């Protein structure tokens, strides 16, 4: 039913201007539509991300968006770090750290947050 349909990520924020600046200028996403002071739609590859104003912004404690970046994960993490993006470090059995990148076997993941505290990540898939 939905398996052949596109999906869009939705990110709740309190300060749309600050979030818009982060997603456009820090992450490099392209704004493609704006609904006044309520929503900015960004293109990320062939997908869309809706960044919208909400009183519940920053309350999600799980990953909201994942970018599959392949072997560029280290280079992209470094570029984000150079722009001042702080990374999250989590501890799990069997996971080692390579800078800001969590390594478990062949899987590499780097987590970071947007200005509202939404958890975002890069993965080497």
Automatic annotation (TrEMBL):
Q: Which PROSITE patterns match?
A: VOC
Q: Name one Pfam family in it.
A: Glyoxalase
Q: Where is the VOC domain?
A: 5-125
Keywords, alphabetical: Dioxygenase, Oxidoreductase
Q: Among its keywords, does the record have rRNA processing?
A: no
Query: Could you state a single Gene Ontology molecular function term?
Result: dioxygenase activity
Protein origin, superkingdom:
Bacteria
Oxidoreductase in keyword set: yes
Name of protein = Glyoxalase/bleomycin resistance protein/dioxygenase
What is the native source organism of this protein? Answer: Mesorhizobium alhagi CCNWXJ12-2
Higher taxonomy: Bacteria, Pseudomonadati, Pseudomonadota, Alphaproteobacteria, Hyphomicrobiales
